[in-house]
Recover the amino acids of this structure.
């Protein structure tokens, strides 16, 4: 129709005939043809524009639908880790590798995304040879998150049901079977590559290390009640970092020197923990409970002991990343990017923190207060089974907050409902740094950390986060918002 319109225009493009200031009939006929031309052209434009607009809306709807799959996919990992009682450093490791595979898939289909070769240690990019267009990178990325977890987690086989449900949803959405099969094949390939990359990080050698024995001495960590569990991951410093250079790259300030003297600085720090616990405010209680994130808490009743499972600190921050991405209305690729960077940040932050924990090997407040202040005292939160200095929440939360702030800005308000499944009300924050500050001080309110472990832990985490941000800038990875 457009060609016919142009032909009509060419035939009628002649000089107008006038006479005595009045248009001739011939001229009027030509004007009519011009008007017809305009109508035809406008109609043609509408005919072209309508399918384009419809297609854009369909693509936008599809993009939003796949983005909504991401947070449940990541949380499916959390559910398995809760079942397996995966400790905090190991949980962060699993999140990191599972998200790396998803990012690898989308980055090979989006030239604007930065490759990981120059960012990660000992990383060789596995190239996807499947023809573009024959698979959906979004389906492949989501499936890869679960498949990597299936391959790596102790009870990963439980993720097979999640995978099958996801595939069933795509079939219901009428995704062509060939496209679906090809997407799953790509996901399986990359997941296997990520699992292979993970095998070289020395995690498999931890079980061969000598069993940890508590160091004798008044100032050192000792297992705490009620379960008196053995130390968690005393050799975690040997795990290969993903971005930072080494486990001891960011040594914190030395801890306050141990002392039993009631006039000493150390005694005063312990007394601060004790005093807060005697008359905590309702807000302090809420903050302590919200940021508990202890993967395994043991409750006792007479001779009976009951275990309660929760998400880890890293799992909480992975969920924050997902919530913030939704709040910021990020695209599918941007959401994957943000959660991948959160994963590698908490992974490296735990390596840095655990290196210091077993170097200083400091006594927990519960042990000190029971010995020197009040033998019957109990903290609000159950003391986790590893040395006190520095605070893991402080290091990990602050590091994650720095990277998330770089990617999403420092003024993003979001409501964190990560703990609602444990019947703990949601909390609203105006920035990631505000949330990290609250997570850090929560350990004082909970009775499990001294003040210097919190403050110096924040400094340590900030250095880790800023270093990672510097590396992101160096490789050209820009903020997503």
């Amino acid at each position: 129709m457009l060609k016919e319109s142009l032909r009509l225009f060419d035939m009628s493009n002649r000089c107008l005939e006038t006479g005595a200031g009045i248009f001739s009939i011939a001229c009027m006929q030509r004007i009519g043809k011009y008007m017809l031309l305009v109508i035809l052209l406008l109609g043609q434009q509408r005919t072209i524009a309508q399918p384009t607009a419809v297609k854009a809306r369909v693509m936008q709807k599809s993009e939003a639908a796949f983005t909504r799959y991401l947070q449940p996919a990541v949380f499916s990992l959390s559910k398995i880790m809760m079942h397996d009682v995966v400790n905090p450093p190991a949980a962060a490791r699993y999140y990191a590798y599972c998200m790396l595979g998803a990012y690898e898939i989308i980055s090979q289909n989006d030239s604007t995304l930065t490759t990981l070769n120059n960012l990660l240690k000992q990383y060789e990019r596995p190239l996807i040879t499947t023809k573009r267009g024959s698979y959906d990178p979004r389906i492949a990325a989501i499936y890869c998150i679960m498949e990597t977890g299936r391959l790596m987690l102790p009870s990963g086989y439980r993720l097979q049901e999640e995978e099958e449900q996801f595939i069933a949803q795509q079939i219901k959405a009428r995704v062509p079977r060939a496209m679906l099969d090809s997407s799953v094949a790509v996901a399986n390939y990359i997941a296997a590559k990520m699992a292979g990359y993970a095998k070289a990080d020395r995690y498999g050698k931890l079980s061969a290390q000598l069993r940890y024995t508590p160091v004798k001495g008044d100032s050192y960590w000792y297992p705490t009640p009620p379960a008196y569990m053995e130390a968690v991951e005393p050799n975690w410093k040997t795990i290969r970092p993903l971005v930072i250079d080494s486990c001891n790259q960011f040594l914190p300030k030395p801890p306050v020197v141990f002392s039993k003297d009631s006039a000493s600085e150390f005694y005063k720090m312990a007394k601060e923990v004790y005093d807060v616990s005697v008359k905590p405010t309702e807000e302090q209680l809420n903050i302590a409970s919200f940021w508990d994130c202890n993967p395994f808490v043991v409750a006792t009743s007479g001779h009976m002991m009951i275990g309660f499972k929760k998400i880890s600190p890293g799992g909480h921050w992975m969920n924050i990343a997902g919530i913030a991405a939704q709040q910021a209305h990020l695209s599918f690729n941007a959401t994957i990017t943000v959660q991948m960077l959160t994963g590698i940040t908490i992974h490296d932050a735990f390596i840095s923190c655990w290196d210091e924990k077993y170097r200083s090997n400091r006594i927990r407040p519960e042990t000190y207060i029971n010995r020197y202040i009040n033998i019957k005292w109990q903290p609000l939160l159950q003391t986790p089974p590893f040395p006190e200095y520095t605070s893991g929440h402080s290091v990990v939360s602050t590091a994650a907050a720095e990277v998330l702030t770089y990617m999403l800005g420092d003024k993003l308000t979001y409501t964190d409902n990560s703990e609602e499944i444990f019947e703990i009300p949601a909390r609203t924050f105006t920035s990631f740094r505000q949330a990290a500050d609250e997570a850090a001080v929560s350990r004082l309110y909970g009775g499990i950390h001294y003040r210097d472990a919190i403050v110096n832990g924040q400094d340590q985490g900030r250095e880790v986060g800023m270093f990672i941000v510097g590396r992101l800038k160096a490789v050209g990875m820009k903020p997503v918002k």
Q: What stands out?
A: The chain is about 55% helix and 5% strand. Residues 1-50, 52-59 have pLDDT under 50 and may be disordered. Residues 105 and 141 are 6 Å apart (CA to CA). The longest helix spans residues 25-84.
